[in-house]
Write a structure and sequence with these properties.
With about 400 residues, the chain is α/β, with parallel strands linked by helices. It is about 35% helix and about 20% strand. β4, α3 (about 105-115) and β5 form a beta-alpha-beta unit. It starts with 12 loop residues before the first strand and ends with a helix.
Length: about 400
């Protein structure tokens, strides 16, 4: 996989923050070598976060985000500031740009405190150093630069690369569960919601991870699964299915073959599987009128029979024996305040970074609202949750202990 093939969710997200007169967008353009943001002498030229996936040497594939000034004024300005702060939910590396002539302001200090509280790797960049007669000592978390004449821009790129490489352990989607030569069967429904002539991102990434493990992948449809299994000379190590087909696939796969879903694999990959397993029990305790938030990380076109807006609500009604109130969000739309909800159901998050998934989980925990995911919820409602966790003994053990 080349650098340009790395999906945005897997790239470090580098966001630039600062006051409106700090020259933030000029620094962004100098670092990227592109006119990523419009630059003007007028304060507040950047009105919304600007985001672009790109290759930033020497860091490699990254997502760069330029944000509105954090001191914008008026009702519209306050909304822009709020959008800038929401960027923190998906920020892996924060760059605070300060006018070196004016120095740190209260808003800068507050933002710096927020970086530290949220454990976001960060760097303070004092811009416009070309206007200073001498450069003060910067410190390990700061650097003096000039977007105008390029002073220390190269060093800034090096510092960003160092932060991007720090504490970035190699993670695997499914490869750590496999041995070379293992056979994995992927069950991919082909229906109205399936994209024409291609596989969706979770399926592509899972196939690639299987190949990286030296294992063998076989892709089949739901209706073709029984014939596929009977045709194989080698017993599959694992069957991975789209969550919406869990029930049908579970009946077709013999009990001595492990079974899980793409959604569950991604929940583990993003670090939210434990929380999702613990929250699944809430599904049986829902009552008439309880509010359930169903959230997807992507913004695909809703189809007839859509899993998020049609199938999941129907399964929940049948399982809980009541009529909850359903609220739907997609893409970056996700409420800060989750107190109105009894439960949050989230997709696997393949289009969201690990930081953003953790942020959403943090909002749920902060408001004491259980948050589970599609695959876990569907497995729970179809009575196959324990089976779907067999590939993950630690999580299965926790589930078993909780049920005792």
């Amino acid at each position: 996989m080349g650098m340009n093939d790395v999906v945005s969710a897997e790239r470090p997200h580098i966001a630039f923050f600062g006051l409106r007169n700090a020259g933030k967008s000029s620094v962004v353009n100098a670092v990227t070598g592109q006119k990523l943001s419009v630059v003007s002498a007028v304060k507040g030229t950047t009105t919304d976060p600007v985001q672009k996936a790109m290759e930033l040497l020497p860091a490699g594939p990254v997502v760069v985000i330029d944000t509105p000034g954090i001191d914008d004024t008026g009702a519209l300005g306050e909304e822009r500031v709020q959008r800038a702060r929401r960027v923190l939910d998906r920020t892996d590396i924060a760059i605070l740009v300060v006018d070196s002539g004016a120095g740190m302001q209260n808003a800068d200090r507050e933002l710096l405190d927020t970086f530290r509280a949220r454990k976001i790797a960060h760097l303070v960049v004092f811009n416009k150093c070309d206007l200073l007669s001498t450069l003060p000592a910067a410190g390990k978390e700061a650097l003096y630069v000039s977007a105008i004449d390029g002073t220390n821009i190269g060093q800034l790129k090096e510092r960003i690369a160092a932060l991007a490489c720090r504490d970035a352990p190699e993670k695997q989607l499914v490869a750590d569960l496999l041995s070379p030569g293992d056979l994995v069967v992927l069950v991919v429904p082909i229906d109205d919601a399936a994209p024409k002539e291609r596989l969706i991102l979770p399926q592509q990434q899972t196939i690639r991870d299987i190949l990286d493990a030296g294992a063998i992948s076989v892709v089949t449809g739901v209706e073709e699964l029984p014939h596929t299994l009977s045709s194989l000379r080698q017993k599959p190590r694992l069957v991975i299915t789209d969550s919406q087909a869990f029930s049908v696939v579970s009946r077709a796969v013999p009990p001595d073959i492990q079974l899980t879903s793409f959604s569950i694999l991604f929940a583990r990959y993003k670090g939210s599987l434990r929380r999702a397993v613990q929250a699944a029990a809430v599904l049986s305790r829902l009552r008439e009128g309880d509010s359930v938030l169903i959230s997807e990380g992507c913004t695909h076109h809703r189809q007839c029979g859509d899993i998020g807006t049609i199938k999941l609500p129907n399964w929940i009604r049948q399982y809980a024996g009541c009529e909850p109130r359903f609220v739907f969000t997609s893409g970056r739309e996700f409420p800060d305040d989750l107190t109105p909800y009894s439960l949050v159901l989230h997709c696997g998050g393949c289009m969201l970074s690990e930081r953003e998934m953790h942020s959403r989980g943090h909002y749920a925990a902060m408001h004491s609202v259980p948050m589970t995911n599609y695959g876990i919820a569907i497995a729970q409602m179809h009575g196959i949750l324990a089976r779907s966790l067999e590939p993950f003994p630690d999580f299965l053990r926790e589930l078993t202990q909780a049920q005792l």
